[in-house]
Amino acid sequence: MKTTADPSRRTFLKATAALSGGLVIAFWLPGRRGLARAQGAPKAPIPPNAFLRIAKDGTVTVMVKNLEFGQGVTTALPMLVAEELECDWSRVRAELAPAAPEYAHTAFGMQMTGGSMSVGDSWMQLRTVGAQARTMLVGAAAAQWKVKPEACRAEKGFVIGPGGKKASFGSLAEAAAKLPAPEKVALKDPKQFKLIGKPTRRLDGVERIEAKTVFGLDVKRPGLHTALVAHPPVVGARVAKFDAQKVRGIAGVTHVVQTSRGVAVVAKNFWAAKKGRDALEIEWDAGPGATLSTEGLRAEYAALAKQPGPMARKAADSNAIKAAAKTVVAEYEVPFLAHAPMEPLNCTVEYRGDSAEVWCGSQFQTVDQAAAAKAMGLTPDKVVLHTMPAGGGFGRRANPASDYVVEACEIAKSVKVPVKTVWTREDDVRGGYYRPMYVHRVETGLDAKGAIVGWNHAIVGQSIIAGTAFEPFMVKDGIDHTSVEGVSDTPYDIPNMAVTLHSPKSPVTTLWWRSVGHSHTAFVMETMMDELAAAAGEDPLAFRRRLLAKHPRVVATLDLAARKAGWGSALPKGRARGIAVHESFGSVCAQVAEVSLEKGEVKVHRVVAAFDCGLVVNPMTVEAQVQGAIAFGLSAALHSAITIKDGKVQQSNFHDYRVLRLSEMPKVEVHIVSSGADKPSGVGEPATPPIAPAVANALFALTGKRARSLPLGSLGTVPIPS
């Protein structure tokens, strides 16, 4: 059955001829609302930018409204257009769109990349763009041949008509551009898909392999200077005074500028800026952050976890646990985490007094554009923000405060020369934003048959939403949903479940991290499930299946992972399996980890992942994203932690903020669930949450000891609980 798309929900711009004489198709989403308005987005529309261009030579260019930082959107999104357009895939190109209102997320009203929503948000939008262009091209050919459009069809970049007539898209583009845009277009039934669902190599693959991709760090402009900023060594500190006398004699240094967060040294090259920054003498006002420590926060959080707090979920019977035959109480801890993308933060700005251009790998393009404009005393329509490919992000480049963008704009406005701010790895690890530290306290009760009768779950950790423009929409009755997601809405059928949340404030700046709240809630829920299965004397898989009976999609994914991993079969001596399943971002991921101990260190040999992400656009992208998400999650599970002492972050680079080494990467098998869904769900993040509990559960099966904190010990050493 065909789907009819109605663009009347949004205003459809008239198709116009491009400078090349080709066809341009564009959406404009009128009316900025919610967050975009709160962030200062322009009230009036800016000139439209096209989603689709067809040149006279037949090249099809798709403008990608999301940031490409390795997840493959510059292939997946053009596939949506190409499927409906019926073009030649070999002629398709992708470009990253600049910041502009017409590229806003269809629900949130801001241009953004996050929440594993890129493909799902564009699913109907870009298919409609392709179908509209196809309709117009067919109409142009039909008019040229003086036949009815119904007598013609599009195929592989051509319109084919009666009697063998044939015309390329390129030859028809100019004529098609003069036709009125259809208000409604018929979309394909998924059974008719020729490209969507097929393994498709990335459009940017060769370019990246040959190191031709221009990232933010690679931007070059005439007269470009480099700026490095001395950020506070103590969390929340401010500049009291500074002495730049020693800096000014360093060759290449041109300016020393105080910013809202520190002191910037501007020079003609990076090394000069680095030497200049090292020579700065700064007196800092440490403020209350000087006494901050991980140990102090741990004690504070543990105490709060035992106190009543705002309820995210209320139990039907709050006294159920008291009558339980057996109780299990556990406390969990997960640390602050840095994002640590391979390409550190950077931003290039040309300030011209009455206008400016910005180049950066932004996940929040229109938010960053508005913040940049405010920092330079301009209106957003006077700031062009170019979206540059980024070498990773994991949420760090989606900052509601636009910290690194604002900083660059402040410097550029002050020195009035083109400036590129560059964060070193140490700057990023020590002076950035972090996934919050959390403490969970879980009290559960089982009856004599091993069935759960009650569950009290307390979560303590900073809110990542409070104080941002998102707060009015995402914090309700004191509950930041991102702190409790994966617990309060668990698919497990748990009677008398109560969930409370404490969100203490701290000078530590926090931000979402790949998979957001699920990054810690999955660890707690899934290790607790294993612990309860052991207390009930039941197989962990069977225990889960019984509690998930009302969620066949989750069960099917769990079963597939277990079957492919050989759950229950014999393993070599010294190895064990652990299982976990979690639903996030509309998708379900189950994983089985095969683990051993080698000289006291955890060795993950094999991970089998089953993944249900709805309708699959590109299986190759899905497989790659699951593999990457598992590697990312394993880094946090085994090694990564940010600790604070006397207000100072103790880690600085990959030698002490460990990430997974290539030699540690296990064999990963990805099995995509054929769910029969009619639309895609999230891909980039859902495979991160299950890996830590799968490994922890395997360690329990191997050692009989529970690991209730992450990472799983120094250099992967298994902790011995008291």
Query: How many structural domains does the protein architecture include?
Result: 3
Report the major sheet.
7 strands, mixed
Shape: globular
Write down the overall mean pLDDT: 92
According to CATH, what is the topology of the largest domain? Answer: Aldehyde Oxidoreductase, domain 4
Which second-level CATH architecture of the largest domain applies?
2-Layer Sandwich
How big a fraction of the residues is strand?
A: 15-25%
Set down the secondary structure blueprint:
Blueprint (H helix, E strand, L loop, with lengths): L2 E3 L5 E2 L3 E2 L5 E3 L1 E2 L5 H5 L13 E3 L5 E5 L8 H13 L6 E5 L21 H28 L7 E3 L2 E3 L5 E3 H9 L7 E3 L17 H5 L15 E6 L7 E6 L9 E6 L4 E5 L2 H10 L1 E5 L8 H11 L6 E3 L12 E9 L11 E6 L4 E5 L4 H11 L7 E5 L15 H13 L3 E4 L2 H7 L6 E9 L5 E10 L9 H4 E2 L2 E2 H4 L12 E6 L15 H19 L3 H8 L4 H14 L9 E10 L2 E12 L2 E12 L6 H20 L5 E2 L2 E2 L17 E6 L18 H13 L19
Parallel strand pairs: 7-8, 13-23, 21-22, 25-28, 31-34
Antiparallel strand pairs: 1-12, 2-5, 3-4, 4-6, 6-7, 9-10, 10-11, 13-16, 14-17, 15-16, 18-28, 19-24, 20-21, 20-23, 24-25, 26-27, 29-30, 30-31, 32-33
Helix pairs in contact: 2-3, 3-4, 8-9, 13-17, 16-17
